[in-house]
Design a protein that fits this description.
Layout lengths: L2 E4 L2 E4 L5 E6 L6 H6 L8 H13 L2 E6 L9 H11 L2 E3 L1 E3 L17 H13 L12 E5 L7 H17 L3 E4 L6 H10 L7 E4 L7 H8 L4 E4 L23 H9 L7 E3 L19 H13 L4 H15 L7
Parallel strand pairs: 3-4, 4-5, 6-7, 7-8, 8-9, 9-10, 10-11
Antiparallel strand pairs: 1-2
Helix pairs in contact: 2-3, 4-5, 5-6
The structure holds zinc ion (ZN).
Length: about 325
């Protein structure tokens, strides 16, 4: 039986349910506080309130995309999961360097050091909580080519996946370097079904997406609410009135690649959270945006795939228990 690894333990992947595939449910570190205070998410009760409202609408699983040392707290994620009943997948890995203290040794580690660190967090425990193991490897590239150090991290991620089956979720900088990311991961032992690339919809070029999809990996779109000209009204879509490139991409590509898309909010700022008084709030995805997918004529089976079956395929461990 395949499983996914939640902060509360391993769960059969068939029970993943409606899944938000790239989220930020807790963000707190000295580095974020000093350089990115707008990203801080550390009011437990407000975060829990947003998760409660998601659970009421049937959302069962969220993937937390912040790896250790960059703002993650797996003990908080565990408590949030317990109290909200939403399953949460925590990430190990290495994010963009900007989110770390400049002297954090993890930034200089080579592939062997990194693979050892990832494996320890996946198989034994995460740094903040001995009770929690990571169920995802988050990797990031910062531009149109990977730096040497970013390559080491991707190679380490592939090594860790080859040993454990743990899925890999990557950050692309506005969709850039996607093919290079895939090439490195596949060359070092990762499998396409276990690779999820984020943010491709920030470069809304269907031809480019097809090229990436032809490798067999999964794409995660998370800009469905970012095209609004009027930030207080996510319905006022830009860049042209009535246009939403994320929606347009899904209408065009999901029927062609029905199992290779997942979707999320990537709402890393409290100003995007309803419980913090922001907009559009996490419910936007499962309510308004889902309605828009139906209105544009996508079949229910395809939409269910996007929210349920495809995340279960991508975020399971890619071997038997
Ligand atoms: Zn993110």
């Amino acid at each position: 039986m395949s499983f996914f690894r939640s902060v509360l333990g391993d769960i059969p992947h068939s029970l993943m349910g409606v899944t938000y595939s790239h989220e930020h449910l807790w963000l707190n570190s000295p580095r974020l506080a000093s350089h990115y205070p707008e990203l801080l998410l550390r009011d437990f009760d407000l975060i829990l309130a947003e998760l409660d409202s998601l659970f009421q609408l049937g959302v069962q699983t969220c993937v937390d995309a912040m790896p250790g040392r960059s703002g993650r707290d797996t003990e908080k994620l565990k408590q949030l999961s317990k109290q909200s009943q939403v399953s949460i997948i925590a990430s190990t890995g290495v994010h963009l360097e900007a989110y770390y203290q400049p002297d954090d040794p993890v930034l200089a580690w080579n592939r062997d050091d990194l693979a050892r660190y990832f494996l320890g967090e996946i198989e034994v425990q995460t740094e903040e909580s001995p009770a929690v193991r990571a169920g995802c490897i988050k990797l990031a590239s910062s531009g149109s080519r990977l730096t040497d150090q970013e390559r080491e991290r991707f190679i380490a991620g592939a090594i860790a996946q080859a040993k454990t089956g743990c899925p890999i979720l990557t950050h692309t900088e506005k969709g850039e370097a996607a093919l290079e990311q895939v090439e490195i991961l596949l060359a070092h032992g990762a499998v396409p079904e276990g690779i999820i690339l984020s943010h491709l919809d920030r470069r809304p070029d269907p031809g480019y997406h097809r090229e990436v999809l032809s490798t067999g990996v999964t794409l995660e779109y998370d800009s469905c609410f970012r095209w609004s000209k009027d930030k207080s009204d996510p319905q006022s879509f830009g860049p042209e009135p009535g246009k939403n490139p994320t929606l347009d991409l899904l209408v065009e590509l999901l029927p062609e690649y029905p199992v290779q898309f997942v979707i999320g909010m990537d709402a890393a700022k409290s100003s995007l959270w309803e419980s913090y008084g922001g907009t559009p709030g996490h419910l936007f995805l499962i309510t308004k945006f889902k309605e828009l997918l139906h209105e544009r004529g996508l079949l229910s089976d395809l939409i269910d795939g996007l929210f349920i079956l495809n995340p279960a395929r991508a975020y399971r461990f890619h071997r038997s228990l």
